[in-house]
Design brief:
The structure is a single chain. This protein is mostly helical. The chain has one domain: Lysozyme, CATH 1.10.530. The chain has 7 helices and 4 strands. It has a two-stranded parallel ribbon with strand order 1-4. It has a two-stranded antiparallel ribbon with strand order 2-3. The longest helix has 26 residues.
């Protein structure tokens, strides 16, 4: 017997972000994980940082990687809209995949292929194919290991799981 899903009404701003997330070709995980992450991070779209700064993922101000941030306020990135913050999460994924590739070669004592080289592109695609098939457990472990969140693994995992088991409607 499946437990009944909880129903939650979210703002139009949050619903537009959820719709946009489902249109993005994420490099890691599945769109339902990203939607759950958005809902968990923003308290179902109710957080101040989301409502005022369109920051759906709690991203701090970015200084060392490409970003879609249009500003920085109180140490959090400001975005044009919630979907732009989801695109930035994908840029965060890209940054970390590149670092993973570097680490693989360094561990093996091999020369790291140049960014843009055919070898690097092939490695990147191999990593993406593997990471897109992550289970929720693997996804949460991956982002935890890379410092995305400070909460415990279990709390964060359960927060995403709860969000995945929620029916959404607009207010």
């Amino acid at each position: 017997m499946n437990p009944q899903k909880a129903s939650v009404q979210i703002s139009n701003q949050a619903m537009e972000t959820v719709k946009g997330i489902n249109e993005i070709d994420f490099l890691i995980g599945k769109p339902r994980f990203i939607v759950a992450q958005f809902l968990h991070e923003t308290g179902y779209g109710s957080s101040r940082v989301f409502q005022e700064q369109n920051n759906g993922f709690g991203m701090r101000c970015v200084y060392i990687r490409p970003t879609t941030q249009v500003g920085c306020q109180a140490d959090y990135g400001v975005y044009a809209n919630g979907v732009s913050s989801a695109i930035d999460l994908n840029k965060w994924f890209e940054y970390h995949i590149e670092k993973d590739i570097d680490q693989l070669y360094i561990k093996q004592g091999r020369r790291v292929p140049a960014i843009g080289s055919e070898r690097r592109k092939s490695d990147f695609n191999d990593f993406v194919n593997r990471y897109r098939n992550f289970t929720l457990e693997q996804y949460v472990a991956y982002i935890k290991e890379r410092g995305y969140f400070e909460d415990t693994y279990n709390n964060y995992y359960n927060g995403l799981l709860n969000a995945m088991n929620t029916n959404l409607s607009s207010k």
